[in-house]
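Quick one, tokens below:
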């Protein structure tokens, strides 16, 4: 119990947080606080489980040896799970997530995001539809969003419907960031594009 509960709780928190970014382009900042509290709880739970297992093992050496080893292995299974989560977190932090939403009132609007050094990302969205995708940027602007007209790493959004074509320069995006691009009726960005998280 002292190994399974921390494992399942921690993995649940991580996968919920990841799903918010990957599928909805949203940051659920509260989950980071919950994860920290869960890690503290899990550490003490695991220590308590190891202590109880040691007491039982010392009192009944032969009778509970097999059960104690099984319990010890359940607690140790948390180590590769934590390594996997840390690796996945590193991968997520190297990405830039982009959430695009069509609020033009038109269907079949084509959105092309040109990220420097990468293929263009093209999606066709009907009115009200949203898509979320990510790419790995080559630039090194960790936590420094911004705009500089001479910057070769500028991201450009092209919005196209029939004969209407509009190019919008976004700027640069930091690693681990997500930009929400809501395109309105005049083919302009609503809120000038909103950086959701770092």
């Amino acid at each position: 119990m002292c190994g399974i509960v921390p494992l399942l709780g921690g993995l649940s928190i991580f996968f919920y947080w990841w799903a918010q970014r990957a599928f909805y382009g949203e940051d659920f900042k509260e989950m980071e606080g919950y994860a920290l509290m869960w890690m503290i709880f899990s550490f003490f739970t695991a220590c308590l489980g190891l202590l109880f297992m040691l007491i039982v093992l010392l009192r009944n050496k032969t009778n509970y040896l097999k059960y104690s080893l099984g319990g010890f292995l359940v607690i140790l299974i948390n180590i590769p799970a934590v390594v996997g989560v840390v690796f996945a977190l590193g991968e997520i932090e190297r990405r830039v997530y982009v959430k695009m939403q069509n609020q033009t009132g038109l269907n079949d609007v084509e959105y092309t995001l040109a990220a420097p050094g990468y293929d263009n990302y093209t999606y066709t969205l009907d009115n009200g539809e949203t898509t979320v995708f990510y790419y790995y940027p080559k630039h090194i602007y960790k936590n420094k969003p911004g705009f500089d007209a001479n910057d070769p790493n500028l991201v450009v959004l092209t919005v196209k419907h029939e004969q209407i074509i509009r190019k919008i320069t976004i700027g640069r995006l930091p690693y681990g960031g997500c930009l929400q691009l809501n395109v309105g009726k005049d083919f302009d960005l609503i809120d000038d594009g909103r950086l959701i998280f770092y």
